[in-house]
Q: What sequence folds into this?
């Protein structure tokens, strides 16, 4: 799996929508969609914000 798939899996495990995650990390839902689909890799800063919002480490998302 790639980082986008891992983000989607963790988000869904938490019962969180893309919109909810986007609000937590202060981006548009379309950005979360692009990251999860692999069209746009997250920056290091956005990756950290996403990991924090999902209650996990960046390393766990990158595996």
A:
């Amino acid at each position: 799996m790639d980082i986008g798939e891992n983000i989607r899996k963790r988000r869904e495990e938490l019962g969180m929508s893309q919109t909810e995650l986007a609000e937590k990390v202060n981006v548009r839902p379309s950005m979360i969609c692009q990251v999860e689909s692999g069209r746009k890799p997250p920056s290091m800063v956005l990756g950290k914000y996403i990991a924090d919002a999902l209650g996990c480490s960046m390393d766990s998302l990158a595996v």
About this structure: Helices lie at 3-13, 18-25, 29-37, 44-54, 58-62. The longest helix spans residues 3-13. The chain has five helices and no strands. Residues 30 and 49 are 16 Å apart (CA to CA).
